[in-house]
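Design job #97: recover the sequence.
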């Protein structure tokens, strides 16, 4: 779908789709029907947010692209409005991640980062003063997120400012798995982050969380002039030291932002692994640990990690999240999945050749489902909202595909199915909603049951939201069975995404709850019950 075609259309075709009962059949339950039981008394985690990041490409879009285009991108990401036909105008993200740059853009080609679009500005000048006019493009999307009512603004850093690094660069050139931050600059780095947080507070742009380290397990080393992006490894003791310093500076400046730890590069490092940045839950949240951070006032009981490289097959996908959920529970924490795109090859599902945009969207929805329903994630955040790339196949890295001009000062964009896959969750599952235990009845080994993934969420007014994924090649008839409901649900709406180019969170109004709901093959549905 190109930029021109992303305009929301109200037409006779859409109206007929909304009013039809094509996908809801008043039929008796058949042997092929899968019954899903939802026990509204069995409650799991409270959802905090769904989000995405504007790194790296916000700078060019937000600073240079024509207003109409960047405004449309912001609407697609942040809007919670429905048009007259009930069609969502955006995916209503409830979190937006803002990259605090390290200053590689000012260094230009001497930064050693190959792609100029992946270099980032720093608010800190070489002489120690601050220039708040920098990062104009990133600030545009930050402001739009606030204007649209995004509940959680999150600041994160991939590297300390180059003034504070050991090699004067925004990445490592030595492969030693140690931080690039100079030993004498921990307090300077903390003061820098606190200064940025305080400035944006004064602008009415409050960062609820600040994340000082990112994917500390990776070595982030490249030969000079061969680097892909800013980045630094961190050992656990180094993370402890920077969190301690940052906690102190936030406290001294009377700032309320919380520190997000540790954005592990893969989920298994949170509870296991080996090396200097492994077993981070135990190291940071066991009171007996020398690196215990649970007593710091600005550290919430949240551990954050990234779902990369833990989804190569369904067994690994599930078992990793089971182990994580058990460890998180044992230490009284909440788990945030704070960054993911289809970086590894699990999204190919064992197939060769390019994957369609719907293949990618379904795999993405499967990862989200398992992080929520098995891992008990309270937040789920996608890596990049937009990147250059194709819109119809191998859309593994982004929600919106960019077709930029060479200087990145203009271009076009296309919406991918990934946007809607995330939107099936982010638009309807709002902060504060509670996941409800949901179980499919029947033979758990059958392909039909395995291909159906359903999770349910309840708000304070007892509105019930279900996300149902049919991963299989055949349609599924779904029968909902509610237990311990406090109200009778008389109004049902369904938002449907299929491989069809025009079926993207398309609304339809269902009949009674007792009727069977048909889930088309290879589809995602959000069902709202009021």
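Job complete. Output follows.
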């Amino acid at each position: 779908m190109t930029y021109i075609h992303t305009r929301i259309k109200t037409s006779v075709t859409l109206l007929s789709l909304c009013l039809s009962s094509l996908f809801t059949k008043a039929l008796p339950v058949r042997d092929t029907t899968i019954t899903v039981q939802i026990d509204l008394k069995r409650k799991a985690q409270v959802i905090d947010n769904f989000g995405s990041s504007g790194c790296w490409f916000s700078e060019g879009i937000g600073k240079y692209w024509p207003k109409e285009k960047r405004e449309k991108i912001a609407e697609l990401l942040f809007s919670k409005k429905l048009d007259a036909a009930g069609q969502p105008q955006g995916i209503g993200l409830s979190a937006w991640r803002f990259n605090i740059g390290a200053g590689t853009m000012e260094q230009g080609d001497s930064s050693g980062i190959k792609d100029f679009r992946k270099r980032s500005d720093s608010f800190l000048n070489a002489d120690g003063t601050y220039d708040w006019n920098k990062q104009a493009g990133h600030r545009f999307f930050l402001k739009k997120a606030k204007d649209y009512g995004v509940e959680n603004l999150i600041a994160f850093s991939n590297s300390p400012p180059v003034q504070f690094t050991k090699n004067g660069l925004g990445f490592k050139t030595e492969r030693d798995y140690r931080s690039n931050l100079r030993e004498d600059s921990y307090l300077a780095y903390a003061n820098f982050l606190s200064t940025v947080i305080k400035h944006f507070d004064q602008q009415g742009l409050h960062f609820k969380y600040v994340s000082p380290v990112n994917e500390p397990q990776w070595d982030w080393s490249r030969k000079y002039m061969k680097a892909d992006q800013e980045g630094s490894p961190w050992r656990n003791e180094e993370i402890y030291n920077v969190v301690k310093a940052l906690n102190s500076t936030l406290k001294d400046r009377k700032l309320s932002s919380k520190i997000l730890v540790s954005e592990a590069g893969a989920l298994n490092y949170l509870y296991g692994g080996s090396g200097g940045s492994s077993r981070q839950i135990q190291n940071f949240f066991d009171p007996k640990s020398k690196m215990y951070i649970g007593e710091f006032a600005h550290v919430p009981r949240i551990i954050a990690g990234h779902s990369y490289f833990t989804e190569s097959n369904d067994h690994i996908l599930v078992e990793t999240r089971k182990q994580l959920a058990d460890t998180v529970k044992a230490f009284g924490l909440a788990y945030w999945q704070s960054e993911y795109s289809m970086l590894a090859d699990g999204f190919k599902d064992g197939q060769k050749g390019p994957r369609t945009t719907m293949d990618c969207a379904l795999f993405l929805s499967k990862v989200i489902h398992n992080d929520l329903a098995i891992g008990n994630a309270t937040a789920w955040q996608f890596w990049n909202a937009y990147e250059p790339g194709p819109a119809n196949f191998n859309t593994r890295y982004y929600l919106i595909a960019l077709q930029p001009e060479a200087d990145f000062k203009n271009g076009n964009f296309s919406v991918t199915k990934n946007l809607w896959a995330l939107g099936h969750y982010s638009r309807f599952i709002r902060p504060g909603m509670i996941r409800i235990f949901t179980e499919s009845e029947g033979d758990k080994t059958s392909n039909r049951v395995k291909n159906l993934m359903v999770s349910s969420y309840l708000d304070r007014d007892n509105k019930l939201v279900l996300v149902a994924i049919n991963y299989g090649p055949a349609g599924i008839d779904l029968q909902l069975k509610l237990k311990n409901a406090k109200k009778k649900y008389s109004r049902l709406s369904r938002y449907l995404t299929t491989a069809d180019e025009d079926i993207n969170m398309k609304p339809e109004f269902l009949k009674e709850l007792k009727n069977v709901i048909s889930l088309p093959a290879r589809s995602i549905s959000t069902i709202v019950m009021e």
